[in-house]
Amino acid sequence: MDRTLVICKPDAVERGLVGDILSRFERRLLRIVAAELRVIDADTAAQHYAEHVGKPFYDELVTFIGRSPALVAVIEGPEDTWKVVRDMMGATNPRNSAPGTIRGDLGIEMGENLIHGSDSAESAAREIAIFFPGLG
Fold it and tell me: Which of 73, 85, 116, 132 is catalytic?
């Protein structure tokens, strides 16, 4: 079984969309193996977004992800679960996301695009270790 990290970002929590988002994964027979509602502190956000340090949008990312609670979860499924989750999320810019995807159905703003999902198996392992270090 593969695992990937999903974050229902503050805008998803604020809009009451977490149940809808997580149920989409469960309907695809993916399993939630860990979940926690938390405000992501600046240090954790810095670790999570380390590859974006120095980019013009970095400060906005860190500020946004920590503005209010987010639901951080580990999703488990068959090989390449990270890819299934990314496909279900839709394009980063919700305006370019297909209907039927999370962002295509529920999002409209690039800066508040509801959800994060690991972009590779390696990223998933790194990100899970950041948010759930004891989850082996």
Answer: 116
